[in-house]
Design a protein that fits this description.
Strands 3-2-1-7-19 form a 5-stranded parallel β-sheet. The protein has a 5-stranded parallel β-sheet with strand order 9-16-10-11-12, covered by helices on one side. A 5-stranded antiparallel β-sheet has the order 22-23-26-25-24. The two termini are 41 Å apart. The radius of gyration is 22 Å and the shape is globular. Helix 3 packs across helix 4 (161-173). Helix content is 23%, strand content 29%. The chain has 428 residues and is an alpha/beta fold. It has 3 domains: 7-114 and 249-328, FAD/NAD(P)-binding domain (3-Layer(bba) Sandwich); 128-246, FAD/NAD(P)-binding domain, CATH 3.50.50; 347-426, FAD/NAD-linked reductase, C-terminal dimerisation domain (Enolase-like, domain 1). The protein binds flavin-adenine dinucleotide (FAD).
């Protein structure tokens, strides 16, 4: 039973944490809500950090989830700039870096993820960057502008979403850009080999150089400044700055220390805190949501959720925070959304719905004009069931793609490829 004297604590002030706090109040919870975050900024959204904000098109103020004054109005107690350093699930306490001990009735871990670091010589040089926080984006924005002015060279390690979005931003400032990627195509682990080439062409047309099949082995510097990078195939590329965009790792330290169940990091699930479909961890009073949580994945409606997946995307934090808040309030609210994400690069806007990593699908079918980057791609399993869909510069189809995935119905590749057959006509 939840009553007005209870204390709900949220560790992590990203989108999932902020939305959970908002939902607790929206659902009428009148007890204490305490939000703890090791960052000093109020909770903000990260997608603009590699897009509008990095490009200088969006103001700093536009990234925040709520106005700072909202937290006081909603009686959310904020502990900003304070890490939660110890969790005791037996005593139901969480201790902050400054020694403050907080007793909770329910706890939400929304600790997100942190950039993976390059483990090579030279990573301590001043020109080596990561992009996760507002402060990183502020710094990178200045770096890109000065590289653009001075004809400087940015090397990006990793052709994932963040690497590619930063490549697009850097080109818009006029910087020289080389992307070094171990796989043979960009976004290989998400799109497979079939469609990564779309993004290679897009970026090459905008002047980005790619070096595929290689990994950085050294960042060469002089007097603390970056001069070049070396790759494992013996090549050297000039560089004034380097962005390590080689993925993110879930921030599970607190959960691990508290003995909560985690998902194996070595598999394809991406590790994370194991939660059930209500986002409850192995401790009945502790929940997890957003980038840090590995929740059961169900694609087709009637399929068994036999695998857990950590979804590192905005929509998952946006919906997962509120779902966890409702579950903390004892509501029977499952979090059963299909993975979804979006990206903007140059004039290309794409959305991806579902989950179809290489090895899981039998074929890819496209409708529309792939060369003109106006198309929808469908990843099908051996029975013709849709696992994932990506719409590139085609608006308003993501919901239908989700319904087709959920239906679990076998689809005719010819009909999927035919632009004259409305996608909605394929719904059972
Ligand atoms: C540059 C960038 C661009 C992105 N673009 C897109 C996009 O275009 N589309 C898309 O779908 N997704 C995108 N994402 C992903 C999306 O932003 C994330 O999925 C989302 O931020 C996850 O929210 P979260 O609240 O789970 O975690 P986070 O946003 O990581 O927030 C977690 C917070 O908890 C804090 N914290 C961690 N541990 C502790 C602790 N022990 N004590 C106190 N505080 C702690 C962290 O410092 C952080 O502030 C992007 C991410 C980045 C970094």
């Amino acid at each position: 039973m939840v009553d007005a004297h209870q204390t709900f604590v949220i560790v992590g002030g990203g989108l999932a944490g902020a939305k959970a706090a908002e939902t607790l109040r929206a659902e009428g919870f009148t007890g204490r809500v305490i939000l703890i975050c090791d960052e000093r900024d109020h909770p903000y959204e990260r997608p603009p950090l590699s897009k509008g904000y990095l490009l200088g098109k969006e103001e700093r103020d536009s990234v925040f989830v709520h106005e700072p004054a909202w937290y006081a109005q909603a009686h959310i107690e904020l502990h900003l700039g304070q890490p939660a350093v110890h969790l005791d699930p037996e005593a139901r306490t969480v201790r902050l870096g400054d020694g403050t001990l907080i007793v909770y009735d329910r706890l939400l871990l929304a600790t997100g993820a942190e950039p993976r670091r390059l483990d090579i010589p030279g990573t301590g040089l001043a020109g080596v960057h990561h992009l996760r926080r507002l402060a990183h984006a502020e710094r990178l924005r200045g770096v890109l502008a000065s590289l653009g002015r001075d004809n400087g060279h940015l090397v990006i390690a990793g052709a994932g979403w963040i690497g590619l979005e930063v490549a697009a931003a850097a080109r818009s400032y006029g910087a020289e850009v080389t992307v070094v990627e171990a796989a043979p195509t960009p976004l290989h682990g998400v799109l497979g080999p079939e469609l990564g080439g779309v993004f290679t062409d897009l970026h090459r047309e905008h002047g980005v150089r790619f070096h595929f099949g290689a990994e950085l082995t050294e960042i060469v510097g002089q007097d603390g400044m970056v001069l070049a990078v070396r790759t494992d195939d013996g090549e050297e590329h000039p560089a004034h700055d380097v962005l390590a965009a080689i993925g993110a790792a879930p921030r599970t330290a607190l959960a691990e220390q508290a003995g909560l169940d985690l998902v194996d990091r070595t598999g394809t699930s991406g590790g994370g805190i194991a939660v059930d479909s209500s986002l409850r961890t192995s401790d009945p009073y502790v929940y997890a949501a957003g980038d840090v949580a590995a929740a059961p994945l169900t694609l087709a409606q009637d399929a068994p959720a036999d695998t857990r997946l950590r979804v590192e995307h905005w929509a998952n934090a946006l919906n997962g925070g509120p779902a966890a808040a409702r579950a903390m309030l004892g509501q029977d609210a499952g979090h059963d959304r299909l993975p979804y994400f979006f990206s903007d690069q140059y004039d290309v806007a794409m959305e991806y719905t579902g989950h179809a990593p290489p090895g899981s699908y039998a074929q890819v079918v496209c409708r529309g004009d792939v060369a003109k980057r106006e198309f929808t791609a469908f990843w099908l399993d051996a029975d013709g069931r849709l696992l994932a869909g990506m719409n590139v510069n085609v608006p308003d189809v993501a919901d239908t793609l989700g319904q087709l995935i959920r239906s679990g119905a076998p689809l005719e590749p010819g009909a999927l490829a035919d632009p004259d057959v409305p996608l909605t006509a394929l719904l059972p």
